[in-house]
Design goal:
By secondary structure, the protein is α/β, with parallel strands linked by helices. The chain folds into 3 domains: 84 residues, 3-Layer(aba) Sandwich (Rossmann fold); 165 residues, Mur-like, catalytic domain (UDP-N-acetylmuramoyl-L-alanine:D-glutamate ligase); 151 residues, Alpha-Beta Complex (Protein-Tyrosine Phosphatase, Chain A), CATH 3.90.190.20. It is built from 15 helices and 17 strands. The strands form 3 sheets. A 6-stranded parallel beta sheet has the order 7-8-6-9-10-11, sandwiched between helices. A 6-stranded mixed beta sheet has the order 12-13-17-14-15-16, sandwiched between helices. Strand 7, helix 5 and strand 8 form a beta-alpha-beta unit.
Length: 434
């Protein structure tokens, strides 16, 4: 679909009516005010009362797809569940694909299992200070389709790209930033290999005049980079330093003076829930790393904060990820207590016991937070335990190595509840700590 105008005479259904689905609908309705549109969503309670719109809601929503020429799919709906409901004659597209195919400006795509939002935001600040007409788009920025109406050749779009947005994409950005790659979203993809292939689309279709900025310390990313036709710029660094290195490299491709780049990096304010210091209360430093939803992110947090980490809050939604490496890192650290949420808390504990048996080192104390009721109540119990168990001068780290969805709406709710309880319980009298 090389042009938006090709949608004019097609029967269109918007698959998924969450945040991006609503953006898709608003864009298409402005583009085609009188055109009949359709919405398909599993949630039958979304309140689909829209003029000239046919709604397919509830458990059989996917059966409606056969009636449409173009399916504008939201990224949260896995390809594997729609495969049996579509034909080769249908066009499956997305907000990201429509934007990429019709944007007249330059696109900087940023991906990686972790660090995308921070790096994209930092790049945006560098470009702005460098005098470019920059826009922050994608998961962390403005809805991209609405940006198309005013887009011109001088515009530069910093686009944070998840694997879901990259999946099935047939065009890569002018500048691609690839930070890291480790197991994630294994409930969404059939395998880690499929997840990796989706991520690889950020550079697969790049041309020889494009740029690929990649983490040369990540073996899988390096292997993907070796097959790219783009000009390659390797960067190194751990955690936040990697984000900085990648952002600086993007500034270099635009020939922004180093002084301006460094000023932007120095003045950049870290995003919430990313190894964020909440504060020190009763002698304990509390860190909110709620976005650490995979073991590798928690491992990086432990390495960054070092030996002062005495308590870690772990566990959450089970995405079939292996916790062996995390257990080994915890045993190497000075962590004395692990506070464990269901359901992966039990899996993490079993991994710790196995690593302890193999390595001969005693595991930390385990506190299981079970049957607490609401997510807020789970967090209240966890933070209370952290106050009781963490010694003065040490760190309590919220870095669950698991997704949030079984207990919390998302990582943001988890992090905000953590902060709320840290502040609330700082004012209460606690039992004497060890």
């Amino acid at each position: 679909m090389s042009s938006i105008n090709e949608l004019k005479d097609k029967r269109i259904v918007i698959l998924g009516f969450g945040r991006e689905g609503k953006d898709n609908f608003r864009f298409l309705r402005k583009l085609f005010p009188k055109k009949p549109l359709a919405i398909a969503d599993e949630n039958k309670n979304i309140g689909c009362r829209l003029t000239n719109v046919k709604c397919h809601l509830g458990k059989n929503y996917l059966k409606s797809l056969k009636n449409y020429d173009v399916i504008v799919k939201s990224p949260g709906i896995p390809w594997k569940i729609i495969a049996s409901f579509i034909t080769k004659k249908q066009r499956i597209t997305s907000q990201t694909e429509i934007f990429f195919e019709n944007c007249p400006g330059r696109i900087i795509g940023v991906t990686g299992t972790k660090g995308k939002s921070t790096t994209a935001s930092m790049i945006y600040e560098i470009l702005k200070k460098g005098g470019l007409k920059a826009h922050l788009a994608g998961n962390i920025g403005k809805p991209v389709l609405n940006l198309l109406r005013t887009a011109g050749p001088a515009d530069v779009y910093v686009y944070e790209l998840s694997s879901h947005q990259l999946h099935n994409l047939k065009k890569s950005p002018n500048i691609a930033v690839f930070l890291n790659l480790f197991p994630e979203h294994l409930d969404y993809y059939r395998s880690f290999e499929e997840y990796a292939r989706a991520k690889a689309n950020i550079t697969l279709y790049q041309k020889k005049d494009d740029y690929l900025i990649y983490n040369s310390q990540d073996k899988i990313v390096g292997k993907i980079a070796s097959k790219s036709r783009a000009k390659k710029i390797p960067v190194k660094g751990e955690y936040y330093e990697l984000n900085k290195a990648a952002a600086r490299a993007v500034g270099g491709t635009f020939k922004i003076p180093p002084k301006i780049v460094e000023k932007a990096v120095r003045q950049f304010k870290p995003l919430p829930h990313r190894l964020e210091l909440v504060g020190t209360f009763k002698g304990i430093a509390f860190y909110d790393d709620a976005l650490a939803t995979v073991p590798d992110a928690t491992i990086a947090a432990l390495k960054t904060l070092g030996d002062k980490v005495a308590t870690v809050i772990l566990g959450g939604f089970d995405r079939k990820i292996n916790f062996k490496k995390l257990a080994e890192e915890i045993l190497r650290s000075e962590v004395k207590t692990v506070i464990l949420f269901p359901t992966t808390g039990r899996k993490i504990w079993q991994a710790l016991l196995a690593a302890s048996s193999a390595g001969g080192k005693e595991p930390p104390q385990a506190i299981f937070i079970d049957q607490a009721g609401s997510g807020a109540q789970y967090m209240e119990k966890a933070v209370k335990s952290a106050y009781q168990q963490t010694k003065t001068g040490k760190i309590c780290l919220l870095s669950t190595a698991s997704a949030s969805f079984n207990l919390f709406k998302d990582y943001q709710e988890k992090g905000n509840l953590f902060k709320k309880q840290v502040f609330a319980q700082a004012k209460t009298k606690m039992n004497k700590r060890r």
